[in-house]
Design brief:
The structure is a single chain. This protein is mainly β and 377 residues long. The protein has two domains: 110 residues; 257 residues, paralog of FGE (formylglycine-generating enzyme) (Alpha-Beta Complex). Helices cover 8% and strands 30% of the residues. The strands form six sheets. A five-stranded antiparallel sheet has the order 2-3-4-8-6, with no helix packed on it. A four-stranded mixed sheet has the order 1-9-5-7, with no helix packed on it. Strands 18-17-16-19 form a four-stranded mixed sheet. Strand 3 and strand 4 form a beta hairpin. The longest helix has 11 residues.
Amino acid sequence: MNIKFLFILIATSFILIIHSCIYPQAIQNMKIIQSDDTVKIYYDITGGKSNDLYKVDLEVSSDRGKTFSINPKTVSGDLSYGISTGQNKNICWQPLKDPIELAGDNYVIKLKGELLGTTADVEFVPVPGGQFEMGDQFDEGPGNEINKHIVSLSNFSIGKYEVTNFQFAKFLENYASNKVKGGEFNGEIMIYPVKGGLMYSQGQWIPDMGYDFNPVIGVTWFGAYEFCKFFGYRLPSEAEWEYAAKELGTKVRFGNGKNYAAAAQINFNSNTDKSFLYADRSESRNKTITVGAFPPNKLGIFQMSGNVWEWCQDWYQGNYYFKSKSDNPAGPLFGIYKVIRGGAFSSSARGVRNSVRSFLAPYSNKTDVGFRVVKPK
């Protein structure tokens, strides 16, 4: 293979508005080395925060950059989701195995890096309503997951990502209080300062350094509820959450759309539950990660399993599945605890299954609990 490439670095810079400052993020120092039938690409990701995780894409043009119609498949290395900042990143591409017959000098390589989930506004994924079997379809969970039952749901849209520290800080800036200012929950505390979450400094709430686009933590159910109310959203029902996590109710164990908990796709505690057969054994992160760090499920929803537990609208009741209504169930009318779903970075593989149900008092604030929102259609 003797190919003359025109290598051009495109879309290498990002403008992020953080704490009213502008920080450029860049793929730099790109080098291309061709050896026999292999193309090796070396690059650095500079700027940003040390714990930022990017999505890096490689595209190829055969018309000097007018269109990028070639999507390399036989690639390996520092590509796709979860790429950290640093130097000497590398990608290995074998074009002839794709197979792509390359000839001439019109080829352009585009290397893109993107830190996902960085907008101030919540991004949504539409979810068409339908009917599904709710509960533990694999018969491996505790008693509060049993009694599988058929549920019908109307159309809704759900947050593509968990609500971030950046987004919640902007809400608090507009709301001008960390306590609910009226209504049924007047006076309830919405957020507490925690490492990896929000900090209170000089009269304002700001994300802990380096955690702007990680899920908000230290947030109570009251805070999640008031955030939704302020913007005209609501929290997902327990049924809606599970339906979205199961990709419209298919039989799938985890929120990565698979029956296996890969550590490169789910942020969970892989050092626990050694007997569990459906998970990686690897070093656990023991903290939250950026909301767009891992691939989404088939609906385009990110991190339904792991990272943080997510507050739901419903009151919790252990035996609710035995008396749930079938049409748009919204949980018991009263209760002491609120439902949380999805597991967290601190959870075992068993704890991040799609059917797992847990609960907390609505005034609780934890370093592994956040939320995402729903917008009714």
